[in-house]
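ok, trying the design again with the full structure, not the truncated one.
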């Protein structure tokens, strides 16, 4: 990933060489990285071709890298919606992309279509294993202590350079409008309350310093939570393993090493 990120012009050839030369099967994160690089370099046609040739359906990680290129993102998502009209995820992503760039009428129109179909986004929930027991997040009796720990954690993250990724909240489907400072602050507060962050906080206050944390998430982990947990692993000297809907994410505190293992 580091090699791809540093090569704006040679990232695409390196991606093609991963499997052919090095025997590494590219993951969705590899494709997202190259799509982002191509977009930033203005090579939008190549980015679109790459998305269409991907061996797996593009998810919010790939499509989220296109939100600054509305025309391309809109065209790709509209084609995906036409190809798979029953896939509500594409409808939601397109709606959120409209919302993120201020096209609220289009966003609301799409959401009304989903509402009429009786389709709702599944809420994200996380659980953590502590002392042989499974603990849930917002319904936990220690929720006050968890939020106190959350405040401390966010403070330490900001000192370490953390900047909330508002796009992650919009693309999660939980926040739809970024129009002014108040709305941005509201989105950031919603980001801080993502279930996996709360699970991490409970783990930090309930286990010995340095012990590993094991968290289970029913949906994909968002980009902001991925970045936060990587930093938390380093700051608090913890190994953190998160299993989301698609893969295991293993965060090691030594230089914040991250390993993702896709589920079969």
């Amino acid at each position: 990933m580091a090699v791809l990120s540093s090569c704006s012009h040679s990232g695409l050839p390196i991606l093609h060489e991963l499997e052919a030369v090095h025997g590494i099967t590219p993951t969705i994160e590899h494709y997202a990285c190259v799509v982002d690089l191509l977009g930033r370099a203005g090579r939008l046609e190549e980015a679109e071709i790459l998305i269409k040739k991907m061996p797996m359906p593009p998810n919010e990680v790939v499509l989220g890298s296109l939100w600054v290129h509305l025309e391309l993102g809109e065209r790709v998502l509209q084609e995906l919606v036409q190809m798979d009209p029953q896939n509500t995820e594409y409808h939601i992503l397109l709606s959120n992309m409209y919302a993120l760039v201020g096209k609220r009428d289009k966003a609301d129109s799409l959401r009304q279509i989903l509402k009429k179909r009786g389709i709702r986004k599944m809420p994200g929930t996380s659980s953590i294993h502590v002392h042989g027991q499974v603990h849930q997040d917002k319904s936990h009796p220690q929720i006050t202590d968890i939020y106190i720990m959350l405040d401390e954690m966010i403070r330490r993250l900001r000192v370490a350079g953390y900047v909330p990724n508002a796009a992650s909240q919009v693309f999660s489907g939980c926040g739809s409008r970024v129009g002014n400072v108040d709305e941005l602050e509201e989105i950031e507060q919603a980001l801080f309350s993502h279930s996996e962050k709360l699970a991490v906080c409970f783990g930090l206050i309930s286990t010995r310093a340095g012990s590993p944390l094991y968290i289970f998430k029913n949906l994909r982990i968002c980009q902001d939570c991925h970045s936060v947990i990587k930093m938390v692993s380093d700051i608090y000297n913890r190994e953190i393993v998160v299993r989301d809907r698609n893969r295991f994410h293993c965060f090691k505190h030594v230089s914040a090493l991250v390993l993702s293992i896709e589920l079969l």
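Keeping the full-length input from now on. Residues 1-10, 173-179 have pLDDT under 50 and may be disordered.
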